[in-house]
Design a protein that fits this description.
Elements: H1 10-19, H2 24-38, E1 47-48, E2 70-71, E3 74-76, E4 88-93, E5 96-99, E6 126-135, E7 141-142, E8 147-151, E9 173-177, E10 183-189, E11 200-206, H3 209-213, E12 220-225, H4 228-237, H5 242-248, E13 269-273, E14 277-285
Parallel strand pairs: 6-14
Antiparallel strand pairs: 1-3, 1-14, 2-3, 4-5, 6-7, 6-10, 8-9, 8-11, 11-12, 13-14
C-alpha cells in the first residue's frame, strides 16, 4: 500500500546531509543545487508557511529538515507522488481509466458522500480541512481563484473507486476554489492509517477551476501530514479505527516513504476533540 518505493539517496541526499553542518544561507544554496541536479524546477511551486503545533511532534527527526526551498518568507513544499489512487485521470482502476475531475458534482465542500451516479456516505470522526493558498512571488499574498483537488482514504484505510468494498463509491474526493483570503475548506472524516504509510491527505493545486475540471495541468501535487497525538486520540477511541492504531504503532515519520526527508511544511495544525470533531489547517502557496 506504500505510495512509492524508497528512493536511492545519491548525490542530492549527500548534499542535504552536508547542509546540516553549514549556516542557513549555504543550506538553502545546497538545497537549490540538489533540486537543479534532479531536473528542471517547475515554473510555479507550492509553499508552506507554518503548520503543526505543540501536538504535532512525533517519532523521527524530519521536523528540522525539509526538502523545500526558501523564496522570500515562504518555504516551498516538496512535490509528492499522487500515489496509486488519485482518480484524476492518470491511472486506472478495475474498470479502466478513472477521472473524477471531469465529472459533474466533483466541485463540493462536503466530500463525505458519493456524487453523480454513486451513493453512499463515509463513516468516521468529522474533520474540516482548510488550506490557505499564498503567492511565492508576492511575499505570500493571498491567492484567490485557485482550485484544489483533495482526496484521502476511509477510516478503514481504503480508497474509493479502487479498494475492495468501496469500488462503487467516489466519496472523500472533491474540488474547491480559494476565496479572497486564499482559503478553501472541505468537510470530511478523519482518515485512517493503513499499513506502511503515516496518516495523510493528498491534494493537487490548479491555477483555476476550469483547469482543475479539465483533469490535467496541476501546478503542484503534495500531501498533508496529521499530528501523531491527534491520530492516537482518534484511533484509540473512535469506532472503526482499530486497525489504524495497530498500523500507526508500526511506522514513524522518519520511516515513512514520503515524510522521512522532511515534513515541517506539510504538518497540519489540528484542533478539536472527538465530541465536536477536528479542524486541520495548513498554509500552502503557488
Amino acid at each position: 500500500m506504500n505510495d512509492h518505493l524508497p528512493h536511492a539517496p545519491g548525490l542530492r541526499h549527500d548534499l542535504e546531509r552536508l547542509a546540516l553542518l553549514q549556516d542557513p544561507a549555504r543550506r538553502r544554496a545546497l538545497r537549490l543545487l540538489g533540486g537543479l541536479a534532479a531536473g528542471p524546477l517547475p515554473l510555479l511551486g507550492m509553499v508552506g508557511c507554518g503548520g503543526g503545533d505543540s501536538d504535532s511532534s512525533s517519532s523521527g527527526s524530519g521536523e528540522a529538515e525539509s526538502s523545500g526551498s526558501t523564496v522570500s518568507s515562504c518555504t516551498i513544499v516538496p512535490s509528492e507522488t499522487a500515489g496509486p489512487y488519485p482518480g484524476d485521470g492518470t491511472n486506472s482502476n478495475s474498470s479502466g481509466v478513472v477521472n473524477v475531475l471531469t465529472q459533474s458534482g466533483i466541485v463540493r465542500s462536503d466530500i463525505r458522500s458519493s456524487f453523480g451516479t454513486m451513493s453512499g456516505t463515509a463513516d468516521g470522526v468529522p474533520l474540516t480541512v482548510t488550506l490557505k493558498l499564498v503567492s511565492v512571488s508576492a511575499a505570500c499574498a493571498n491567492l484567490e481563484g485557485y482550485a484544489v483537488y483533495l482526496w484521502h482514504c476511509t477510516r478503514e484505510g481504503g480508497y474509493s473507486l479502487y479498494s475492495s468494498g468501496v469500488t462503487a463509491q467516489n466519496y472523500l474526493r472533491g474540488v474547491q476554489v480559494s476565496n479572497a483570503s486564499g482559503e478553501l475548506s472541505f468537510t470530511t472524516v478523519f482518515p485512517g492509517c493503513y499499513s506502511g504509510r503515516w496518516p495523510h491527505i493528498h491534494f493537487e493545486v490548479f491555477s483555476s477551476l476550469s483547469t482543475a475540471t479539465s483533469g490535467n495541468s496541476d501546478v503542484r501535487t503534495s500531501q498533508l501530514a496529521l499530528p501523531e497525538s491527534v491520530c492516537r486520540s482518534v484511533y484509540g477511541s473512535a469506532s472503526g479505527y482499530t486497525s489504524s492504531l495497530t498500523n500507526l504503532n508500526a511506522i514513524t515519520l522518519a520511516s515513512d516513504n514520503i515524510f522521512s526527508d522532511g515534513y515541517s511544511t506539510q504538518m497540519a495544525t489540528v484542533t478539536g476533540d472527538l465530541t465536536n470533531g477536528f479542524a486541520a489547517t495548513l498554509t500552502v502557496g503557488v
